[in-house]
Structure formats: C-alpha cells, structure tokens
Amino acid sequence: MLLRFIAAAEILFSTSQIFAQDSEEREGGIVGTGIVGVITELGSIYVNGQKIEIDDDLQVSGSVPAIEADALKPGQTVAVVTRLEGDVWQAEYIRQILPLVGPVEAVGDRSLTVLGTRVDLGSLTSEG
Description:
Elements: H1 2-20, E1 34-42, E2 45-47, E3 50-53, E4 59-61, E5 67-68, E6 77-85, E7 88-97, E8 104-107, E9 111-114, E10 117-120
Parallel strand pairs: 3-7, 4-7
Antiparallel strand pairs: 1-2, 1-6, 2-3, 4-5, 6-7, 8-9, 9-10
C-alpha cells in the first residue's frame, strides 16, 4: 500500500512539473510570478535584486498595523505576486512576512530587532 502511494505521488509530482513549465524565459521568483525576500531599496521596491513597481495605495496584507505599499521600508520582508509588463515587474499583491526566527541584531529597552524586523516586547513579567 505504501509503495502504491509513493508511486502515485511520484507520478503526480513529475506531471505537475511538466504543466508548470512555461515557454517564456523568466527570471526571479516562483515561476516568474512571485518574489519573496527582504526589501533592500526604495524607488518602487527592490526585493532579491528585482525592481518591482508598486501602486502607493496597494494594501499590504499581513502587516500589523495595516499599511499601504508607500509605507514599506528597507529591511521588511515581503512576498509579492507580480506580473511582467514588458520588462518591468508590477506588484499585484503584497504580503508582509513577519519573521521571528533568526539572529538578534539589536536589543532595545522593550524591543528586539530580528532579521531587520523590530519586535516590541511589551511588558514582560517574570514568574518565580
């Protein structure tokens, strides 16, 4: 039974890869439609070396508090669904990723910075 399951999974995986291929040559991202990484520059946004044009009023999903694209800053991690218009990536959807696993880069009075993201600690209590 397990061997049949493994064989079926292999067939499904190999055929899905055939259908996912595109005749166009694409660069950057998930089959050329998604780019995930840390914002490194503004002027639109640059993620993983890719310039992505944004509409300033595009809502950013997953951000706390809710923000629009014009409030994004270098150091924030995002996943961006894009479409290619000529040779320009255009953002259709932006989701802010709030990474909490990684090296601590800075320690403040009531905050930490982890992977470029400030984490407010609030009031901490010690149980004893």
